[in-house]
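Letters spell out the chain; backbone shape is given numerically. Take this protein:
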Amino acid sequence: MAQYTYEQLEAKYNGWRAPTAKVSMNGSPLSAAAWRIESVECVTGTELSAGICSVTLGGVYDRKNSRFLCEDEWPLGSIVEVELGYIVTESVFKGYLYRLEYELGEEDPPRMILLCMDVKGAMMGNGRLGLTGGLTYRQAIRSFFSGENARGYNVLCGSPETDGLPELDNPIPFSPAQTDDYRFLCGTAQRFGLEFFVCKGKLLLRKKPDSAPVLLELSSDRGIKRFHAALSSAGYIKSVTVRGGSDDERDGEKKRALGKAENTQSIAAESSDAGRLIGQRSAEFFSSAGDDKAAQELAEAQMRRRREMASEISVRLTGLPELLPGFSVSLTRFSPKLDGNLYLTSVIHRMDETQFTTTITGRME
């Protein structure tokens, strides 16, 4: 059952009246009599390099004294939090100010644009880890947030919860000192088929849930401005095999590892032309997996990534700040083949002086 219905949210927001944006900088509201927020756009998702947010300010230029009124207000690196909604607002973004843009000229009115990224952006290019060898993945990740190698990310988020990920107890098969935080975490997520993203200021490193919590039931006749769906055979694969091993010799032979994952969702009957044409694809990978268990985990991770390429649905609708990446919505009354749960991989909230919309993109579960 969905956490909300469209009717409940419509009542909560009094019929979508008075769209409201609240932006704070270092804990203080971004407001002044002289300037105004013209637009806000927040882009978050499970597959983005980093979540981003842009805030455009108008009424920021003093022509008499030839100066931008707020150019000294917000130093780069300031902590930014954004809430969107109507008579009630919800948190949709937390990050830091990484870029300031100034616009002035005859064609457009003067404005300032504040560009922000979440904690993943702060991790990019942050220098080598400086960790010694012999660590597990879990130990390395925890060191980013506490201890002598901590980077200060705790002003934006806490250490990701990793208790349900036993694969992170594997030793790192390379020297972590040769990479930075961002590339290490992205590589770890890719290796074990995990999601690595930020949701409402919380850093997540997790397996994609088999059935994500459903936030909302969406019907084709309820606030839908645009709907687009695509089903594809790209990436379809019947099976994945991972072969690995170690250099240790036992009884004169090197230890071998094998893992195999089968696709439980057939694209076509095996005896059909389509089944013979594209339904028998398989893939084989060689890795540093030291045993069958590790090889099997990698095979299943590869299969999950392939299955996720089978569908993509995008919906633009009335602005709903409750919608978040990493959750699902239930689609009803669109078409029998398209109805069902949609796992959200991208959420874009956009508000300007005329409207508030939310665009969600995801894959059918």
Q: What stands out?
A: The mean pLDDT is 85. The chain is about 15% helix and 40% strand. Residues 239-307 form one domain.
